[in-house]
C-alpha cells in the first residue's frame, strides 16, 4: 500500500486551489467560454465527488458537474502523472454520481445528466447503459461489496428511491 501525498484545498469565493506537498496549483472552477465572472452559467470545474479506488489507493477518481468522470493513476507521482478523462466520448459530460466496485475495481458506474446509469467493465475505457430506467437526479451509487452486478441508486425519482440492477444484459 502506497502512501498518498497530503492534499489540501483552499477555497476562495471564485477559485479553488489545491496543494500537494506545498506546491499550489489552480484546480478550478473555470468559467466556460464566453462566461464572465459573476455569471450564473455552470462552471466546468464544480466538483461533484472524489473517491479513492477501494483496491488501489494510488488511484483516485473525480467527477465534476459538467466535466465528466476522471481518473488519476499513480497519485504518488502527482504532478508528474496526469488525469485521464473517462466519459468524454459519452452523450453528455453532466455527472451526478459514480462508484467503483469494491470487489472488482475494473467495474465503474456513473449516473449521467440524462438520467442513465452507465457501467464500465474496463476502468472507464468504454461504457454500456444498464437499462431503460431513467432517473431525475442520482445523489449516490453504492455497489454491493461482494457482487459488482448489484447496484443501489439513491434518486429523487419517487417510485424508485433505491433500485437494484441485477442480471441486466451485458453484465
Describe the structure.
By secondary structure, the protein is mainly β. It has no helices and 13 strands. It has strands at 7-11, 16-20, 23-28, 47-52, 59-64, 68-73, 83-85, 95-100, 108-112, 117-120, 128-129, 138-143, 151-155. The chain has a four-stranded antiparallel β-sheet with strand order 4-5-6-7, with no helix packed on it. The chain has a four-stranded antiparallel β-sheet with strand order 8-9-10-11, with no helix packed on it. A three-stranded antiparallel β-sheet has the order 1-2-3, with no helix packed on it. The radius of gyration is 17 Å and the shape is globular.
Layout: helices, strands, pairs:
Elements: E1 7-11, E2 16-20, E3 23-28, E4 47-52, E5 59-64, E6 68-73, E7 83-85, E8 95-100, E9 108-112, E10 117-120, E11 128-129, E12 138-143, E13 151-155
Antiparallel strand pairs: 1-2, 2-3, 4-5, 5-6, 6-7, 8-9, 9-10, 10-11, 12-13
Brief write-up:
The chain has 171 residues and is an all-beta fold.
Strand order within the widest sheet? Answer: 4-5-6-7
Task: State the helical fraction.
Answer: under 10%
Averaging pLDDT over every residue, what do you get? 76
Low-confidence stretches: 1-17, 158-171
Distance between the termini: 30 Å
The tally of helices reads 0
Number of strands: 13
Estimate the global geometry from the Cα principal axes.
globular
Q: Please state the CA-atom Rg, rounded to the nearest Å.
A: 17 Å
Strand content: 35-45%
Main beta sheet? 4 strands, antiparallel
Q: Class by helix and strand content?
A: mainly beta
Order of helices and strands: EEEEEEEEEEEEE
Amino acid at each position: 500500500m502506497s502512501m498518498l501525498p497530503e492534499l489540501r484545498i483552499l477555497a476562495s469565493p471564485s477559485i479553488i486551489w489545491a496543494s500537494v506537498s506545498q506546491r499550489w496549483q489552480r484546480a478550478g472552477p473555470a468559467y466556460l467560454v464566453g462566461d464572465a465572472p459573476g455569471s450564473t452559467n455552470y462552471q466546468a470545474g464544480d466538483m461533484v465527488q472524489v473517491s479513492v479506488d477501494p483496491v488501489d489507493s494510488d488511484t483516485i477518481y473525480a467527477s465534476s458537474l459538467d466535466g465528466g468522470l476522471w481518473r488519476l493513476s499513480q497519485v504518488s507521482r502527482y504532478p508528474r502523472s496526469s488525469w485521464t478523462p473517462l466519459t468524454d466520448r459519452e452523450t453528455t459530460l453532466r455527472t451526478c454520481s459514480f462508484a467503483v466496485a469494491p470487489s472488482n475495481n475494473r467495474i465503474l458506474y456513473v449516473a449521467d445528466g440524462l438520467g442513465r446509469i452507465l457501467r464500465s467493465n474496463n476502468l472507464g475505457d468504454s461504457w454500456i447503459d444498464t437499462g431503460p430506467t431513467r432517473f431525475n437526479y442520482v445523489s449516490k451509487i453504492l455497489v454491493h461489496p461482494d457482487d459488482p452486478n448489484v447496484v443501489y441508486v439513491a434518486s429523487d425519482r419517487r417510485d424508485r428511491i433505491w433500485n437494484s440492477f441485477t442480471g441486466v444484459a451485458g453484465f
